[in-house]
Amino acid sequence: MFDPLSASAPPVGAPTVWEARGLDAAERALRACYGPITLSGGSGGDGVLRLLRARLGLAYLDHASFEMDVDARGGPLGSLAVGQVTSGRITYRSAGGHRHYRAGQVFLAATAEQEYDVVIRRIDAHLAVLAPAVVAQAASGPARRPVRFLGPDPVSPAAARTWVNTYAYVRDGVLAVPDVADHPLLVGNAARLLAAAALATFPNDALTEATGVDRHDAGVATVRRVAAFVDSHPDLDISVADMAAAARVSIRAVQLAFRRHLGTTPTAYLRRARLHQAHRQLLAADPRTTTVGQVAARWGFVNHSRFTAQYRVEFGVPPSRTLRR
Q1: Using CA atoms, how far apart are residues 19 and 49, in angstroms rounded to an integer?
Q2: What's the predicted TM-score (pTM) here?
Q3: What pLDDT is recorded for position 11?
Q4: Taking a C-beta distance cutoff of 8 angstroms, is the pair 208, 140 a contact?
Q5: Residue 52 burial (CB < 10 Å; 0-12/13-18/19+)?
Q6: Distance (Å, rounded) from C-alpha 108 to C-alpha 127?
Q7: Given a cut of 70, is residue 215 above it in pLDDT?
Q8: Is 267 in a helix, a strand, or coil?
Q9: Residue 34 to residue 2: CA distance in whole angstroms
Q10: Is 318 helix (H, G, I), strand (E, B) or coil?
Q11: What phi and psi values does residue 211 have, to the nearest 5 degrees?
Q12: Which DSSP state fits 182?
């Protein structure tokens, strides 16, 4: 099975661009990104494929423009791919019938295990390719099995809008951060944010209710173990799955424990711990060589205004005042 996020993947942040004319060249470019794929038919003889992709840890953000009409068969991809059409049309063919997607529509372009058979008609689309590992990190179901997606279409129009907005936030916000590869907390958070949006957008088997074991494990001891883990490693790219492993309980038990005993979420606790680390760095920094934006990015805060607002609530002053004290 093709692994688009293998050790040979390109570096984080810097976009890679392909421009291919004709079926053979387009097929080679697509194989480099998506593994086994065969193009045929249509008007692809002299058409152009333009593909831009940027890596964010366990995720890719792709922008594909087909100035051609082609049929494509491929897969399995080895990862989850979520697509959003901006122009043109794509049709998925299967024994169960055909699915058509046009401008503005969001869909599951591929899953990790399934092959696909599609008809592409001069499409322009954005894709997010998510490794199974990052989907598992964002899921709340049992960690012992992979997440299964149960349908290719969003559960509601609101869910589709959530995906579109999340993708745009990561593309236009996180990827725009200077030297984003130097900020692993930003990169990890962005990949998990996309995975969480995919889980919220499409039907899947990860959204399980808390079990009796989860409720039993959601005690103060779990909160203490997770808090100790977070407080000892705020500089690491930590997921809720990592917290659960450190506490030797399920993800659902961690979430339930924090809600029950602290009235918050484990991710909010982690964010606050990093906010305090940013505060310490601002206190020690030289304002001639350090900016608030650099410190915020170092601790996983991509949005400057949100960081400033959260900092002011926590410490009573804007971060710029702390830096210039």
Answers
A1: 6
A2: 0.88
A3: 72
A4: yes
A5: middle
A6: 9
A7: yes
A8: helix
A9: 7
A10: coil
A11: -90, 175
A12: G
Residue 47 has a CB neighbour count (10 Å cut-off) of: 18
Buried/exposed 91-112: b ≥16 CB within 10 Å, e otherwise: ebeeeeeebebeeebbbbbbbb
Q: Which domains does the chain have, with CATH numbers?
A: 16-165 (2.60.120.10), 271-323 (1.10.10.60)
Q: How far apart are the first and last CA of the chain?
A: 56
Residue 44 has pLDDT above 90, yes or no: no
Residue 234's identity, in one-letter code, is P
Give the pLDDT confidence of 64-95 residue by residue, as tens digits.
999 999 999 998 999 999 999 999 999 999 87
Nearest-angstrom CA–CA distance, 89 and 124: 8
* Chain-centroid distance, C-alpha 267: 15
- Rounded Cα–Cα distance for residues 272 and 249 (Å): 22
Residue 240: helix, strand or coil by DSSP?
Answer: helix
Say if CB 170 and CB 193 are below 8 A apart: yes
> Residue 241 is encoded by which pair of tokens?
């799955």
Q: List for the chain the helix, strand, coil content (%; round to 5).
A: 45, 25, 35
Residues 82 and 52: beta-carbon distance below 8 Å: no
Q: Which of 274, 295, 275 is nearest to 286 (CA)?
A: 295
**264 to 254, 260, 272, 313, 325: CA distances (angstroms):** 11, 8, 11, 16, 32
Q: Which helix (H) or strand (E) holds 72?
A: strand 69-74
Q: Are 278 and 311 in contact (CB under 8 A)?
A: yes
